[in-house]
Design a protein that fits this description.
Number of domains: 3
Structural class: alpha+beta
Shape: globular
Largest sheet: 6 strands, antiparallel
CATH class of the largest domain: Mainly Beta
Order of helices and strands: HEEEEEEEEEHEHHHHHHHHH
Number of strands: 10
Strand order of the largest sheet: 1-2-9-4-7-10
Distance between the termini: 40 Å
CATH superfamily of the largest domain: Jelly Rolls
Helix content: 40-55%
Strand content: 15-25%
Length: about 300
């Protein structure tokens, strides 16, 4: 079931600075907003929302789940509203000039919670809570905001992993009742058969969108276990490996004249040519057009 973002219905005093809609992200939707002062309407969310302040100080009053909260927010402050919890009252006493809103499934990655952490997702309920500056949450928010602003070749795979890690973190730290997660296993590298199957899948689908969950299925592993074993095998996370493969494909396509720049951008996993050009120049030092005109095949 797709994530149903309620931001436009809820944040009537603000304007959206950027959205991940259309990016192909899996189980995460993110929007960056700037909010003026004022009261917001009551909303019953279907999905879990985590709002992380990226700008300077603010003051927020809100009420939900029978709790009244006044927060003197600063950069890194996060407001958690679980799915199904109606916020009866929200008042932005001061503006929030830059706030990242992360929407997660109502049951955060239920399959992964059960398979990877040994927890029955039916008994996991998150708190309606304010989270003071948390280094992990802030780091995840900054990475999501960076990908939102500057798309990368395998950004959807990066976000998929960040969303899974964030959901597990919230289950571990913000559950209504204490949840004891199984410690992560010390993963071994992929065996040769799994390794070859995964490499063949990536090679065959490098110009198409796919998920970490699909890669994990090829290896007959859960996504979390697969991601750790993949890094043990290749020294980098799946998104970094796929990003390098897609940029290499872009170099090969640019060496000829059969594909225009928009087609190359799509093959390299980008939603538009401008995002592709920015990422390609960051990786090579040349724009795609310069790379093609100068005949720089083989330049890394």
């Amino acid at each position: 079931m797709p994530i149903e973002c309620h931001a436009n219905e809820k944040y009537v005093t603000g304007h959206c600075l950027g959205s991940s809609r259309g990016r192909g992200w899996t189980n995460v939707l993110a929007e960056r907003w700037s909010h003026a002062r004022g009261e917001l309407p009551s909303v019953l969310p279907r999905d879990t929302e985590l709002a992380v302040l990226l700008s300077d100080a603010t003051l927020v009053d809100r009420e939900g789940a029978g709790l009244k909260q006044r927060t003197h927010g600063r950069r890194g402050t996060a407001w958690l509203c679980p799915a199904g919890i109606r916020e009866e009252y929200i008042d932005f006493k001061q503006p929030l000039r830059d706030c990242l809103h992360i929407f997660l499934p109502a049951q955060p990655f239920a399959h992964a919670v059960e398979q990877d952490f040994g927890v029955d997702p039916a008994r996991v309920a998150l708190r309606y809570d304010v989270i003071a500056r948390d280094p992990f949450i802030e780091q995840v928010a900054v990475q999501i905001a960076r990908e939102l602003d500057r798309q990368t070749a395998a950004g959807a795979l990066l976000i998929e992993g960040l969303g899974q890690a964030l959901s597990a973190y919230l289950v571990n730290h913000c559950a209504e009742t204490a949840v004891r997660l199984k410690p992560p296993l010390c993963e071994r590298p992929l065996d040769e058969r799994r390794k070859q199957r995964v490499l063949a899948f990536i090679e065959a689908h490098v110009a198409q969108p796919f998920t970490v969950a699909e890669l994990a299925a090829v290896a007959c592993m859960s996504p979390a276990h697969f991601a750790r074993s993949f890094k043990q095998t290749f020294g980098v996370a799946p998104h970094a490996y796929v990003s390098a493969q897609r940029l290499d494909l872009a170099r090969k396509l640019l060496s000829g004249r059969a594909h225009d720049l928009a087609a190359v951008a799509t093959a390299a996993g980008f939603s538009n040519a401008s995002n592709f050009a920015r990422a390609f120049k960051q990786a090579t030092g040349y724009t795609p057009a310069e790379y093609r005109e100068l005949g720089l095949e083989g330049v890394q």
